[in-house]
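Example 4.3 (complexes with small molecules)
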Amino acid sequence: MFRLSTLAALLLATYSANADQFAIKASANVAHSADTLLLLVSPDQLNTNPQLAAISKQENFSAEHGKTLTWLAPAAPYAQYQRVVLVGAGESELLTPYQVSLLGSTVAHSLLNSAAHTIQLDSTLLQSAIAQPELLAQLSHGINLASYTFNRYHTDDEPEKIRNIYLLSRELTATEQRLAQINALTEGVVLARNLINEPANGIYPETFVKQALELRKLGAKVTVLDQAALKKAGMGAHLAVGQGSQRPPYLVIVHWEGSKQQPLALVGKGITFDTGGYNLKTQADTLLRMTSDMAGAAAVLGTMHTLAKQKAPVNVVGLMALAENMISDRAYLPGDVITAGNGKTIEIINTDAEGRLVMADALWYAEQNFKPRAIVDIATLTGSKVTALGAYYAGMFSKDEQLVAQLTQAGVTVQEKVWRLPLTDEMLPELKSRIADLRNTGSTTGASTAALFLQQFVTDTPFAHLDIAGNALSSSNKGLHTEGGTGFGVRLLTEWVLTQQ
Ligand code: BES
Ligand code: MN
Ligand code: ZN
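Answer. The structure with manganese (II) ion bound is encoded below.
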């Protein structure tokens, strides 16, 4: 037990420290101690300053979005700095909040590659339609997310020296308030990334539950259903997936009741490792990626963290279905018939189609116990989705046009995009079993039949399923992402929830 709680504490320590390669503060005045001046510039504004215009011309810098120019040992009036970094914003009237967060990413990469230590950031040259508090908050979000690292297992890493960034602000109070809000979002993403990056001997159902319990400190209600409670509730599908592992399954529920309206429900797939079970995954690289098969649950926990930390005026319940899909003499077998919480019997055609089984029970439980206004689930559910959409989009499946429109819009806003794929009863014959009510795979084993399987466990609540297989891990540092866990879904779900008030 001691070991477990130490791990939980360490992970939390890690997740706050890792967002802190930079300490970012708003200030009303120019910091005198700064060694570096960061100037955000657009092509037009650049030309109104003859000195900057001359330097830019000489260096072929056109203030294109995401381009930088470092001017070492600058002349007056910048002589007090060791360097001035011009950060191109492109046409500033056209900037969106997301594009500003990308500029934050540019800033982070540029600073991490330099000896800059104390940084003054000045965005006042920009003539953007975005209010200054929002602009500075998005920059800060991008700086923190793009400088994220997961280094708790590197024993020889030097401790990072924290660099200070001062954001020059003419609306200090509003900027500080907006920064506090967006920092809660950054923390939610970082929490999800840490959980995803943590290997299966660090995060398994019990240690994931410990992480969820931490949200009590933020005033959320956390309920844990252990194996006995799952049995009592009759959730035989979730139990079947978990029964092969020494590490028992859990359903953990985080409830943030920031308003008295009918709740929204978020349901996440939390397979802490997916061997495939007796339908063993045989491709080494696919198997290795299965430490991220709890990315849906991580996105739900990250979102709940954000909402609770923000004290958002919303009523949201997050359910995370946790299990390890293993091989052992107790594991479920192909051909087994199991009974889900809703009483339906399922013939196991393939033990590797485990995600839909744990999700089926969690969806049923969410609808029965919380009577939500809408249910959105998020899961690394199928390889078929990866083939169809890769990392470009999450697959979205829903019969509810309103939910489809809302999630599409939220995805565009935060650039965690979703693309609708079919969810249609036309495919139901594929899920018919000779000996049970349902089979756990369709004959075409696709993302759509998986979604249709899930739909069988929601009766009359507006429901959308997000398949994020392919979105959970990034292969490079690109945009707001760093290599490894992306935390995909935290920004999307938070945006969706906050626009549903
Ligand atoms: N966790 C996998 C899906 C997955 C694959 C996620 C690749 C990320 C990358 C899921 O549990 C799975 O194994 N799905 C099978 C289902 C099939 C056996 C019907 C699949 O899609 O191959
Ligand atoms: Mn699987
Ligand atoms: Zn899986």
